[in-house]
Every structure is written in structure tokens, then in C-alpha cells.
């Protein structure tokens, strides 16, 4: 599988719910089913569900990219009986060139009696994926990290004031001789937050992953 250039990001769009569209192309019925696929296992489970739903279909072609937009580290495709390269590959190309990550797509076809030819099949399958992604409900995926920090009691008020700036959620609090907090935050903010808190506490803040 040739690689595609992409910018690894801590934030990108992923499907927020199952989505389905349908169209008829030269008397063949095409049904596009789209869902969230955070990993290859969940993508294949989704594909199996669609095949089970449409066991009498002529073809259930599929593609998935279980990573950030454009990432080819965890991808898969299948022509499911269509001529080689006319379904799975154009479907995957559409997925990889979209701005949506962690997505699996199945295009179900009920043959209507009119052959589309190889070019027609490529256009039909890529077009059905495009149609499925156009109105797909999405949400933002934010890569987060968890850290445990301890700070002097004198710094607690200023510390809590800075949390919204870094989109930090307090998971737990523990108060002994120092104030301890288990924090969840976007990974992209970690280095700046660490530097800011270290400066604010005069180097008395401690950080750990547990």
C-alpha cells in the first residue's frame, strides 16, 4: 500500500454515529454504511454486521482507515467479487483523502442488470463513499494524557484558575502535606502546562504519569 502524506494531529474529526445513504445507479441499488472505527478489530466487526444485514447482496465492498485522516498504518479494503481495483481501492482513496479519521465504510450493491464497466464501477463506488461522508455526523477527537501533579497549598487558587486555559479536567484530588491532583488534558497542551506550573510554583510542582 503506497503511503499518503498527512499531518499527524492531536485533533481531528471522527464519525459521531452510524450513518447510511442510498442511491440507484443504472438500475443497481447502492447502499453506503459508515461508522466509527478506532481500530482494525472494530472496523472488521462493523463490516461483519453489514454483511449479516445484507446477506443476499451481490457485493458488500468495504474500506477502512482506523487512524488519523490520511494515515495508512491501519487500513483495509475489499472488492468482494467486483473486478480487482474497482471498488475497495477507490473507496479507500476517498476515505484517505477526506478530513475524517477512524472510519469504516461498506458499500452494498444489488445488481440491477446493467453492467457499469470498470470505469463506471470506480466512479460508482468512490461516489457512494463521497455521498456517505458528505453529511456524516462527526465530532472532534482529542488525544489526551493523564498526569498526577502535586503543588504547595499556596498555589492551589492560581493553579485552578489556569485549568480552563489548557482544557484540563480534574479527575481526582488528594490533600496531604501537599495538594495532589489527577489531571486529564489534551496532549498538545502538556509541555506548556508543565512549564507554566513549574514557573508558577517556583519549581515545587511534581509530575508523574501515575
Q: Which CATH top level class of the largest domain fits? A: Alpha Beta
Question: What order do the helices and strands follow?
Answer: EEEHEEHEHEEHEEHE
Class of secondary structure makeup: alpha+beta
Overall domain count? 2
Which CATH-level-2 architecture of the largest domain? Answer: 2-Layer Sandwich
Number of strands: 11
Q: How far from one another are the termini?
A: 39 Å
CATH topology of the largest domain: Ribosomal Protein S5, domain 2
- What's the total helix number? 5
Question: Which residues sit in consecutive blocks of at least 5 with pLDDT less than 50?
Answer: 1-8
* Shape verdict: rod-shaped
Q: Whole-number average pLDDT?
A: 92
Describe, in plain words, how this protein is organized in 3D.
The chain has 210 residues and is of the alpha+beta class. The chain has two domains: 11-140, Impact, N-terminal domain (Ribosomal Protein S5, domain 2); 143-208, Alpha-Beta Plaits. 28% of the residues lie in helices and 34% in strands. It is built from five helices and eleven strands; from the N terminus they run βββαββαβαββαββαβ. It has helices at residues 40-53, 88-96, 117-134, 156-162, 190-200, and strands at residues 11-15, 19-25, 28-36, 59-65, 75-78, 103-110, 138-142, 144-151, 169-175, 179-186, 206-208. The protein has a five-stranded antiparallel sheet, with helices on both faces. A four-stranded antiparallel sheet has the order 9-10-8-11, covered by helices on one side. Strands 1-7 form a two-stranded antiparallel ribbon. The chain is rod-shaped, with a radius of gyration of 23 Å. The model is unreliable at 1-8 (pLDDT under 50).
